[in-house]
Amino acid sequence: MWCATVWSQILSAHTTTTMIEVVHDQAWTELPSDAAITQAIVATLRAVEMPCRSSDQPELCILLADNPAMQALNSHWREMDEVTDVLAFPMQEGRIDPTAGLGDIVVAIPFVKQEAERLHLPFADHLIHLLIHGTLHLLGFDHAEKNAGTTMRNHECNIMKQLHLHCPWPEKA
Question: Which residue has the higher pLDDT, 74 or 53?
């Protein structure tokens, strides 16, 4: 298994370090750079005014999985025996404590590549969007209800625009 640990300096009122761990067991190609992944996560934390912490433990872990692994996770945790693009496993409920880890995000890389092709999007950009989406879930955002979904989509669009990427929700552009 291959593992990359990414440290990122986040400049704010206080300089802190956040750690993002990216884990995968295959040599995936066309992935965004570690810097682009970190920038997306940091932009998401800042967009919702989440203070970052300083620790030697990951603030979040990203698992880049194949389709069978994602299907197994989706079946086990959501009782949906199918592949999905992204799953988020928050470590916290309710009010988020910035001194504790946020959780894990799992992305099905082959599924996301096919989805990006179908949507005529660059794979790396689509993956960044899904990492933002997953991070928002770790922070307690959801899209099951209309108003909450609108809030989450607005955040996603604003963060993607900030990163000079496409708005994933064209009606919000």
Answer: 74
> Who contacts 61 (Cβ-Cβ below 8 Å, separation ≥6)?
20, 21, 22, 23, 103, 104, 105
Determine the Cα–Cα distance for residues 82 and 29; give it in Å rounded to an integer: 24
**Residue 169 and residue 173: Cα distance in Å, rounded?**
7
Structure token pair of residue 71: 């299907």
- For 121-169, how does the pLDDT look when each residue is reduced to its tens digit (9 = 90+)? 999 999 999 999 999 999 988 887 777 778 889 999 999 999 999 888 7
Q: Is the CATH code 3.40.50.2300 the one for domain 2-172?
A: no
- The whole-number pLDDT of residue 112 equals 95
Evaluate whether 34 touches 10 at the Cβ level (below 8 Å): no
Q: Which of 131, 107, 166, 132 is nearest to 44 (CA)?
A: 132
6: its two tokens: 């990414």
Residues 157, 143: Cα–Cα separation, whole Å: 14
